[in-house]
Amino acid sequence: MTTETASGPARKVPAAKIQFLPEDRAWIADRIQEVLASGQLTLGRYGGEFEKAFAAFCGRRHAVAVNSGTSALEIILRTLNVQGEDVLVPTNTFFATAAAVVHAGARPIFLDMDPATFAVTPEEVERRLTPRTTALILVHIGGMISHRIGELQELARAKGIVLIEDAAHAHGSSHHGVRAGGFGMAAAFSFYPTKVMTSAEGGMIVTDDDRVAEEARIFRDQGKAGFTANMHVRMGYNWRLSEPHAIIGLKHLERLPDMIADRQAIAAVYDQRLAGCRNLAPWPVPTGGVSNYYKYIAVLREQRDRKALKALLRERHGVSLAGEVYEEPLHKQPVFAAYAERMLPVAEDYCARHVCLPVYSGMDSAEAHYVADVLTDVLG
To answer: Is residue 4 scored above 70 in pLDDT?
Structure first.
């Protein structure tokens, strides 16, 4: 297989790509013109429509739109008044998960991961409970929901702690027919541009809890009792989502099932082509689960210089790998040194020994076959 010419790689496959179809761009532009003319650029009609549609999509009673997934997590924690309490957090997650805990005034307790699910196990949760544990944040890494989600729900109920979903990766993923956002007391979604769907920037809280939804709306608007009131009843912040962002999110939410189907088709190619790869093991979807394939994760059977591998794939073959989930676990991040009480060996191993293959809406099967050819040649 020839993948390189005198001028560089014969083909280039990016790690990710955002897709807005021409008709979608026109629809978005028309409505942004409308809100610009109206003068109501935040907390207006389209924000409300986005919330209603997203709540229905997740099967929850309430959705509260905010300016980021990070804000969504912090607001949920603030509605629980976790200040001075402990919150259990997986170590193999993004900075924002634990940062939201710290900003809400609580202490993150880092948990090791299950290599079968990239999530936490009930056994690890039980080991790390403290007398001050208030909540557990479960992260649906890469768009996969743990097949042990029911056990984690039962354990949280039995121990009297609140289960919160960090569903930043998991729009449209499900387990036994329940979509991400439907398992915990509340869930936080991100609409950052790299996600399966985007609003350019933004986030969403979903919940069935009337009080949490009401408090979230207060917190997101500077702690005001109401949009038109100037009475501040909580120590809130400017966490609002603008109308232009809501318009973009509405259109991408409408397209979400098709975009997930695109990703699933690419994942099916990888599953089939990499099944016999000696040195790379694709991470399977749990039985009963449906993944949106925010990431296509595969584990290297042996540790190798991943930076050099990514450079080789990119420079010689034109294949860019996506960012890991995650390259360095949180308990090894300098900013969280004060909370790193122990080594977490499983996460340290798997964070150093996995890669994420290119997958995005609009990617064609020829690109996926090319990536599989390259990986098979390079890794064996």
So the answer is: no
Of 291, 220, 203, 241, the closest CA to residue 75 belongs to: 220
Asked if residue 339 has a cis previous peptide bond (ω within 30° of 0), the answer is no
Residue 211's alpha-carbon distances to 103, 142, 216, 234, in angstroms, are 21, 30, 8, 14
Integer angstrom CA distances of residue 102 from 2, 154, 248, 265, 361: 51, 26, 31, 39, 35
Task: Say whether pLDDT at 86 is over 90.
Answer: yes
Domains, the chain, ranges and CATH?
4-16+255-379 (3.90.1150.10), 22-252 (3.40.640.10)
| pTM exceeding 0.85 | yes
User: Please, which pLDDT band fits residue 190 given cuts at 50, 70 and 90?
Assistant: very high
